[in-house]
Design a protein that fits this description.
two-stranded antiparallel sheet, 2 domains, 11 helices
């Protein structure tokens, strides 16, 4: 079951890879890595979920030598079901300075459309030097609280999609609080943080099974016991974060990696 949820229809996959090739050619870029993000990458997609394709790319060397600011992102909507967004490698490296969660998630995606394995492995190894537990916990808890507020339909119901947009970041925050490492991307790999509360783990897994069958806009009844647990863990994780020191960041490794990528894939610098 867990492997099946990450299967992509071969025709859809071919369409996505075709779009990536077109984007690379039309924009004169090299795509180094492309994956699925969002609910399909997290492992709780509904039957009507769209595709959130994310990629990291490299420009020709001359692009980086301009004195003027450059647009280092691409946001494309091919159709209502296919959302494609890409970031230049320099932007990705700058985000690592802030321990931005997105690169850590992309590089762990179980659905990969295009990759250079050496690049992926090297970037993942590099990213570990920049993970900050304190800011990452705050990030995920902020997502959880915001999704809960937006997902409420009334006092007794919540949008099922938003319920999981609460649970996934909460479990990620709990993972960081416990392990002090970047959390797994997929939902089922985060669930073990609930092993000490098996009744909550059972409730969450039952909800997960329901989510795979429901549509994105369906609503379900709030579960008071689960909501109480969420509130308790938010307080607990904030406490852990506030007592966690952040390490000093040095950008030399990022500069060296950036130069290596340009030299390796552009053949100059």
């Amino acid at each position: 079951m867990q492997k099946e949820i990450f299967n992509i229809n071969p025709l859809v996959k071919a369409e996505i890879q075709g779009e990536l090739s077109r984007i690379a050619e039309e924009n004169n870029i090299r795509i180094l890595y492309a994956c699925e993000s969002g609910s399909r990458g997290w492992g709780f997609a509904s039957p009507d979920s769209d595709y959130d394709v994310r990629f990291i790319f490299l420009h020709p060397t001359s692009w980086y030598l301009s004195v003027l600011p450059q647009d280092d992102g691409m946001d494309l909507f091919v159709d209502k079901e296919l959302d494609i967004n890409g970031w230049d490698i320099r932007k990705v490296l700058r985000l690592l300075i802030k321990s931005n969660a997105t690169p850590f998630e992309w590089l762990q995606s179980p659905i990969v459309y295009q990759t250079d394995e050496d690049f992926k492995a090297a970037l993942w190894s590099l990213s570990q030097h920049f993970f900050q537990a304190r800011s990452s916990i705050h990030h995920y808890l902020g997502l959880a609280k915001n999704s809960f507020r937006k997902g409420l339909v009334n006092e007794t119901e919540i949008n099922v999609k938003k319920y999981f947009y609460v649970l996934r970041p909460l479990l990620a925050a709990m993972w960081i609080a416990e392990h002090k490492t970047a959390p797994p991307m997929t939902f089922v790999d985060l669930v073990p943080v609930l092993s000490s509360v098996p009744h909550i783990e059972s409730i969450v897994m039952d909800l997960w099974e329901q989510k795979l069958q429901l549509n994105e806009k369906d609503n379900i009844r709030l579960i008071p016991e689960l909501n109480d647990f969420v509130q308790q863990q938010i307080v607990k994780c904030y406490s852990v974060a506030d007592n966690t020191e952040e390490t000093a960041i040095k950008t030399d490794m990022l500069d060296a990696f950036f130069r290596m990528v340009i030299q390796t894939y552009n053949g100059d610098y």
